[in-house]
Amino acid sequence: QPGDVLTISSDSSSISGRNFVVKKITSPQQEVFGVISTQPYMIMGENVFPEDAQNSELQHNTTIIHYEGQTYVAVGLSGRVPVKFSNSNGNIEIGDKLTSSGDGGVVKLRNSQSGQVIGIALENSNQSDGLVEMKIENYYYTSEEEVKAMKSQLSEFQSALCSIDNSFKFCKTK
């Protein structure tokens, strides 16, 4: 359905044809491929939809085509898309980082922990679930707490190295 978050299938038998994206997201850290689009500006790629379907009314004003037992979808990889969400981590506000929720492709608000971000909320919502407009941005977010912990570990490591051999450049700056 439009707004579903998709990942690349780990089932090698489904990759032989065009069935290589699936809705099943088993973990919030699983790599996200994209979101089923509702109104793509442009559909790129050769033979994205079956040739017979391209020439029929099936493709008119839709991004999901059921044709000869197969389902074809237009997947948003960048830009703005409505995406299904859950507010299990709180209400969604403009600018919030969103991540996969691990429960069937629905996204939810990023908490203060580090993790995979799939987009930024472009609108507020205090509903328990539904669709929210999102700008797709796929990156790993490192929380301030984790950055502080890494800096502390680095400082301890540098101190340990300097106690063994103070010829390193960073030992002379202390």
Structure in words:
Helices cover 17% and strands 31% of the residues. The protein is of the alpha+beta class and 174 residues long. The strands form 3 sheets. It has a 5-stranded mixed barrel with strand order 7-9-8-10-11. The protein has a 4-stranded antiparallel beta sheet with strand order 2-1-3-6, with no helix packed on it. Strands 4-5 form a two-stranded antiparallel ribbon. A hairpin with a 2-residue loop joins β4 and β5 (70-73). The longest helix is centred in the last third of the chain and has 21 residues, at 144-164. The radius of gyration is 22 Å and the shape is elongated. The model is unreliable at 54-61 (pLDDT under 50).
